[in-house]
Write a structure and sequence with these properties.
362 residues; C8orf32 fold; elongated; five-stranded mixed β-sheet; four-stranded antiparallel β-sheet; alpha+beta; 17 strands; Immunoglobulin-like
Length: 362
């Protein structure tokens, strides 16, 4: 048995090495973005007695937009003043992506500002798997409909698949973890059928931490892994994760599909499969983390609710038809090896992201 695990470990390490140099069509990775691409651009207009300036970034990562709305991040800011007091009505929308947000402001001689984030139109957001050159439409009138400001400000919407790997954005990968997606619920139902096949002791159902020992928690994750392997016949695509960790200031981007899209296509690269597993794990109430080592990603799961002990699973093993418990043992060894070598790039706890208002993008 030990020889078997050693072979699995060596196979995993070889595949990690191959993943570093393999490029999948559709992935864009850049060494650095020019800061000016994302700096706020100021668009001002004066119609006495009113002065209006709108600050807008030239481009936004659409995947982050739901988190911006949830946290009321000052993405679009309007500054205003007037030589005489006046009440104005501001309407703002992202053409083709959002609803119209309307806000009434009381304007005085003092320069003031407000942040406005129009809510998404969900069906339009789902279709945004390409780079869209659109505009932010801003209109300012008084209560008598007299127009003081009207502008269509150019805005680039990056695909909702696009992750910008930077230290500042590390938690935003949790936007791709979608525990409430019906497709994830269906996966968990299939996984329940694998529980009787897992090494004992096993729980009677996918119960998360409820009345479950650490071994029973492991059995549940094994069952999810085995459902992907046996029922969905998921294939692993080799692709390097271009993230250098929180101590590095490099910038890179990567197209990452949502778990439901991975299930539909029945294939995914390491980060996509780790996020898919994390979605199913979170669906049953377990705490997941994404572990990044040089060029690669896999899943960590807290087997006790206090997050003091984690076990690991790497979906690279699905191509070899390795069952969940063996993949768990092999990946635990990979994690331990990287820990000893101080080569773990980052561990991103999904609950930390949720506490920071980063929920599933869809």
């Amino acid at each position: 048995m030990r020889i078997r695990f050693t072979i699995l470990l060596l196979t995993t390490l070889v595949l990690f090495g191959l993943s570093g140099g393999y490029v999948v069509e559709g992935i864009q990775s850049y060494s650095r973005y020019q800061q000016s691409n994302f700096a706020n651009q100021e668009h001002c207009g004066d119609q006495p007695p009113v002065h209006i300036c709108v600050r807008v970034p030239a481009a936004i990562f659409s995947a982050y937009y739901p988190a911006y709305v949830a946290s009321q991040f000052p993405l679009f800011t309007i500054e205003y003043s007037s030589s005489s007091p006046i009440t104005l009505v501001v309407s703002m929308s992202i053409v083709g992506l959002s609803q119209v947000q309307v806000q009434t402001i009381n304007v005085t001689t003092t320069l003031q500002s407000a942040s406005i984030l129009p809510p998404l139109i969900p069906q339009n957001f789902r279709k945004l798997t390409f780079e869209d050159h659109t505009s932010l439409r801003v209109q300012v009138t008084d209560n008598s409909k007299h127009l003081y400001y009207l502008n269509e400000i150019p805005l680039v919407l990056h695909s909702r698949w696009l992750m910008q790997w930077t230290a500042a954005n590390r938690l935003k990968i949790a936007a791709w973890v979608t525990p409430n997606d019906p497709a994830i619920g269906a996966l968990v139902l299939k996984a329940a059928g694998h529980l009787p096949l897992e090494p004992p002791p096993v729980p009677t159902a996918m119960v998360g931490y409820s009345k479950a020992s650490a071994k029973q928690v492991i059995a549940q994750v094994d069952a999810i892994y085995d459902a992907l392997r046996a029922d969905y016949k998921i294939r692993y695509l080799q692709e390097s994760v271009p993230y250098s960790g929180p101590g590095n200031d490099s910038v890179a981007t990567q197209n990452i599909k949502l778990p439901t899209e991975v299930l539909q296509q029945r294939r995914g690269m390491c980060i996509e499969l780790a996020l898919l597993l994390a979605s199913a794990v979170e669906h049953i109430g377990l705490h997941a983390e994404i572990v990044i080592i040089p060029g690669h990603a896999f899943l960590g799961v807290a087997v006790t609710p206090d997050d003091k002990h984690f076990e690991y699973w790497d979906a690279v093993q699905v191509n070899n038809n390795v069952v969940g418990d063996s993949a768990n043992v092999a990946t635990d060894e990979v994690y331990a090896l990287n820990a000893r070598q101080h080569s773990i790039v980052d561990t991103i706890l999904i609950s930390d992201a949720r506490n920071a208002n980063i929920d599933a993008m869809l």
